[in-house]
Amino acid sequence: MAPDTASVKFSLTVKKDTHSMKLLTKTMVYFLLIMLPVFTAGAFYLYTTFNKEIKHETDEELVNDKLQWMRYLDTATINNPVFAINTPEFNLQPTDKPVQTKHKLKGVSIFQEPEDTYAPFRQLTQVITVNNKNYQLTLRKSLIEKDDLIKNIIHVMLAAFGGLFLFVLLSNWLISKSIWKPFYASLDKIQRLQLNKLENTVFDRTATHEFNQLNAALNNMTTRIHQDYTNIKELTEDAAHEMQTPLAIAQSKLELLLQDDSLSETQLKGILTSYDELQRLSRLNHNLLLLAKIENQQYPVTDQPDLCTVLEKYLSLFEELIREKELQIHTDMIATAPWPLHPALTDILVSNLLGNAIKYNYPRGHIRIHISAQTFSISNTSELPQIPPDILFQRFKKQHNVYTNSNGLGLAIVKKIADSYQLSLQYSYENGWHTFSTGI
């Protein structure tokens, strides 16, 4: 027996999710969502404040001009030319309105002929008495240059804000990336963990207390997992090896009993049934040991066997079965096809796939074999329907219980070989043809 595949390789698989984002990216997005309204509000506040201050300064200038004009008008005679002046900045018109003790200030727009447009002004109006007559005094000051000044100041401030914003954004990104670097280093180690290599995995100390706590917990966890894995691995391997001896003894005893002529036919049938079941148990034990060795990577690639040669060997070994079923073999192979596999596993891969193609075929059926430098596929006709994908490579899953001497580990072993050596493995069914293909 051996630990299950899911227990042998301890790895963290990060699934792609279109609705998720990296922590650093999420931090930057939240930072933008917070800072953009703050900078926008700051820019609006500065614009409003500058505009208010400039209007206030302009109003003070108008009030000061009004006082100067009133002092001058107190000494002016009726024939003074000042009463005939009418400009956008100054106007004195007779009026029947009562005298006002306080001036009025407001913003107005006046058409400017040279520019052919309206220009903003601040206007002061007040009804005053000059030589015992009421006049409406109107004073104005242009805001064009001051508006331009405000715009220039705002542009400078926006440029300063933009530069500051980019600087803060970049600084925050660099600092966050540096701070989270130990976390991503630990995450990368977790993603590449394998149970048989846990003893060499150490999560280092960092300059951040929280990451040190995380790494300490990971170190304790990997140590416990490796100890448990080692104990289970040793137990299963020892149990499997210990089973070989009593199985061999029991089989030899049954073989001797089968040669005893004094036994009745009923007794012989019972012994033969027990013998067949012991053989099946022995094969099961052997296959489980094989799976454990593959999972523990005990078959390094020391040579690249020729897949074509291996296939020809097993076609010769299965020749009697092929002839018995009158199967038609169609091959499409290149001269040589060296594959990066251990020779023993190459034999197992070919024999399992070819054996299934023969075993599950019907009499006078067909088998198509294709081998290239990077692909290997076997297709066979069969009366059996498509294999459900959810149980295709599961252990101990026998298709339709047709062959009772099968232990349901053949395809599981093929899948384990493919996974261990980074080979692709696909199954397809079309028009009564079952196809298994693998590639480098």
Automatic annotation (TrEMBL):
Alphabetical keyword list: Kinase, Membrane, Phosphoprotein, Transferase, Transmembrane, Transmembrane helix
Keyword Disulfide bond attributed: no
Histidine kinase domain mapped to chain residues: 238-440
UniProt KW Secreted keyword: no
Signal peptide: none
A GO MF term: phosphorelay sensor kinase activity
Catalytic activity entry: ATP + protein L-histidine = ADP + protein N-phospho-L-histidine
Transmembrane segments: 28-47, 153-175
GO cellular component, one term: plasma membrane
EC number: 2.7.13.3
Any Pfam family: HATPase_c
InterPro entries linked to this entry: HATPase_C_sf, HATPase_dom, His_kinase_dom, HisK_dim/P_dom, HisK_dim/P_sf, TCS_sensor_his_kinase
Protein name as it appears in the record: histidine kinase
Naturally occurring in which organism (per UniProt): Chitinophaga eiseniae
